[in-house]
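Let's inspect a concrete specimen:
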Amino acid sequence: MRKFLYSACAILSLCLFAGCSDDDTPTSNELVGEWHLTEWSGAASGAFDAYIHFLDASRCEIYQKVDSPLWQRYNATYNFDGETLTGIYADGQPWGSSYSVTVGNKELTLTGGPEGNQEVSTYVREEIPASVKNSAVDALGTRSEQRRLL
């Protein structure tokens, strides 16, 4: 009986430790929510501001004011494999780059672009103001002359 108890405890311990993982790769669930751009190292002409709302594990809305006094809203789908973020706008145009992602402590960092000219953008988890959502011009399916942030 004693051997049975020792064996059962050993098997239970192995099962418990097998479920543990050192993998701290971010998931799509960590992206879901609203993010506000706070820093951008890429070249931008004029004042700009942006928010990204990751609606679920595959859809997002991008609110941006880039080279324009008006907020624009772009709908897009995205794919996140735990390391790389890619996306396609609703009009079929792919994002300008794929992005490596770092998520931590309510901060999201996207790094992307050609080698030697990479842009690093930092976002903080922050609710998108109703004034931005309500005043945004829907760029869905339109060919905008405005620069797209992603």
Notes: Residues 4-23 have pLDDT under 50 and may be disordered. The radius of gyration is 21 Å. The longest strand covers residues 72-80.
